[in-house]
Specification:
Blueprint (H helix, E strand, L loop, with lengths): L1 H14 L4 E5 L2 E5 L7 H31 L8 H12 L26 H18 L7 H13 L8 H7 L5 H6 L9 H18 L3 H16 L2 H23 L7 E2 L3 H15 L4 H20 L9 E2 L2 H4 L5 H24 L13 H16 L8 H18 L9 H13 L12 H11 L8 H18 L25 H28 L2 E3 H10 L16 E3 L6 H10 L9 H11 L22 H17 L7 H18 L9 H12 L29 H11 L23 E2 L10 E3 L3 H9 L7 E4 L1 H17 L12 H4 L3 E5 L4 E4 L5 E5 L8 H10 L4 E5 L3 H7 L2 E7 L25 E6 L18 H14 L5
Helix pairs in contact: 2-3, 2-4, 2-8, 2-9, 2-10, 4-5, 4-9, 5-8, 10-11, 11-12, 14-15, 16-24, 16-25, 17-26, 18-19, 18-20, 18-22, 19-26, 20-27, 23-25
Length: 956
Amino acid sequence: MSELFNAREQSHATRQVGHTVYINEKGVSYTPPPDPPSFKYQLSRGIIGGLRDTAQGAIDIRNEVASILEPFAEAIPTEARDAIITSLMGFTTPRADDSVREVPSLPEVDAPDAGVAEGLLRGLVQFGAGASIAPIKGAGLISQMGRGAFSDALFNPEDGNFSTMLKSFGLEHEVLDFFDSKVGEDAGAEERLKARVMQSVEGAGLGGVTDVTLGLTMKGFRAIRSDEGLVETVRQSLAETGAKAKAAFDAIPVDSNTMYSNPVFALFDAAKKAYEAAPNDPVVKANYLKLQTEREAAVASGEIDPNPTPEVIPTLVQTEHPGAPRAREIADARIAQERLDAEANVKAGKKPKSVKDVVKIEDLAQYFEEDHLAMHGRKLDPTDPADQQVAARAMAAEIDLQMTQAASGAGWYDADVLKTFQRLSEIPGLERMKTDETARIIWSAMAAPTSINQLVKNNTRAATAAALTYFRTGKFPIEAPKPDTVTEGIPKAGWGMYGVTSVEPGMKIISHLIEKLGEDGFADWWLSPHTKGELTAIRRAVGLSGGPSGVSGKADSIHLGAMVLGDKTGRFSLNINGYEGTTKDVWYSRTYNRAFGQMFGPPDKKTGKPVVQGGPRNQTERREMEAFNKLVLANTQAKDLSEADAQAILWFYEQGLFTRLGVTSRPGSFSEGVGEIHGTLGVRPTVRGSDGVETEVEPGTTLDGFRGVKPKQRAVRSQRRSVLSEFNTGADGQAPSGPYAGRPKLGSGGNEENGLLAFVPDPAASARYNAAGLTIPKINQVDAASSAQAYHDDMVAAMSVHRFGAQVEIKSPEDLATMRTFRTEGGGGFAIKDDGDVVAVFGSQSEEGSGYAILQAAVEAGGRKLDAFNTFLPDIYESVGFRPVARMPWNDEFAPPDWDKNVFAKYQNGEPDIVFFVHDPKYFGDMNMNDVPLLTDYDAAVALQDKALAQLGGGQ
């Protein structure tokens, strides 16, 4: 009997029978079915339900996409996730905090007594309403199909799509079977989105009937307009649904000035807002109570801070600029004229051009020039010192203002680059970025040409994909990837619209240098000074004509190696590596031109219309920009800012200014770009992702040897490496082994009768060294016996005024008389023992930066070994080729006279080891001092030193 009643109940449910039969001891009773709802009531409810389903479909798509992106929350910035969601939904959604995964559902419009007509109407309304809000305009068939696809995607995959609905009303057809996209209730977000794709395909096919559907919907509205009661019912229902929808979207934190620093609190506060707006909604309430419990548990366990501090977001970017209305007026006038021109073209039988109703950069350029004239009464002259000062003070004030923002841009080239390489080292295939400065320099070189006309994130993808290819295969990529190809698993890693014409030549130059010099040699060359003639010769070696673009000076003018790519991209690479300079990119050019009221360049030759200037007009203006940036720095209240800092801060300010005036722009960062790559490649980062442009180094972000080699060391190492290459020759046409003109001369400098050596600086080497802050002094060997006392006295005088003079052993006149002694023209010197031990090295105040050249001369004179305390001296010794082979720990018993441990505190707490070196021509300073053998016996350390010399064949 029970089975019979169950079958009956199922039958009633299937047929929507509205009555029940009861059998008991009193007999049989019967509940009559309720009166069927009126046609008008069903009509209004169908319309309300259809509209609700449309809104809910949009919410569901957002939630499904958010669910799929959730595992990559740390790797994909918020703006990127918003863009993905927006692109799938077709319209902008409220900005969601990282942790807000779902928007609460809208209240259901139940219809247990709905008939076929109401169900069909509800589906038609949903389809029509979805098409009406689709962000696809136009009256053609393609546009109609697009609106249909958008609309159909809004159907709930559990209910299926328009085909499913038609089949439920008894319509059968093979086409409907094919497009039926219904999924189960337990379907995941990915399966649901796949179903929506099928729905969009179906919707595109139904797009041709979109207008018919919209017409049916409008007829439904007209049918109830005459019934005031129904109008009020619809109005109230829509108001209630709208309020719930608003509460659902308001649940997402969108405060323009704060972002929650802890995702747990953000999620809880979102649920709380929704609950306060809809306290009677059971779903919203249950969600709120669940998150409240989770929050309390997290606080109790110590996982989260109960009093999180909101992160302040730059208000400059969030608030509208006072000039925005005027910028909009300029844009409107331009748009009106463009529409008139478009109409004229149509009448003339020409192809019509689309006119977008947006503010453009050219509108802002006109506004800036108007504002400049209103402020100064004329255009400032960039060549007039007085006007330069006026403009510099204005830009300095903008820097001071930007410095008050949380994301000021200061330190961008330092902190973000450090964070970038940390994140790059977490990508399989790029692990060496963690410990290898050379690998980081190679990436920075790749980032230069691939930055041309690219957004930062695209630049990051392109450089990273190229690095992966090179480090994986050993073959440097020199051909631009085809558009939209996936490179090394990274999509959109192309080289931009100038990939073939501009990027490829730059990559070929880098490849050529690495092939000729090796990776380490390339790194030194890239960051050391060279003549413009050298740079031009390298460009010609790869088939390019002429010197590097934007690099001024004659053939003997000195520039850093990276400038072989040209002034803009070369300096960009140098900035990444911490080298000073101003990159004259499009954003700095806009700042500069805005300061002087000269936003427009020469008019377009074809149209005659003014064109916004996109970069320096000529070489002279490039140099003026560099001088102007230094002048701006001199006028700021901020202290200790570098030229790169000033540029980055103005870069942040300028993009914020453009955004406030209607042209949305946002400073990107390499670390954000790598975060997106992490998400694409499925990398789980150890350093958290970023929701914005951060300019502070995160705790724990460290890299071995990051920028550990100083510019002076690079210059010396590059000069030494040039012996093995054809890129550098001395004044006599021969490759010098040191910074002097060939081998040291015998009989020079008035010493012909005794055959003493003389070291004459090589002019080309001197120019390079001077550019790096080094000096190459002229050095003469002197008679030891007659000059020993003067040598001793000069050394005592020099070391007595040197803070770290105690670490240098001063030899007695008697000891010096037994050695070969050499003196610089400025008063410094060195001595060499018979066994090749270099001692008594010192410089003079008049020859600052001469230590490297003095040691190189000592090597040329026969110096083979030396020892020194492990302070800053080993960096100098290693750069000229002295390799550490043994160490001895500090011993108070043998401490030098006047040794102050407080002065040397940063070197092993004032107790540095003694390091023993031998000269190795092929050594350039890549040894970890902790790997050098530590011995407690002096004779054993010297024996190990002599053994290493013997293995080198005497060290020469």
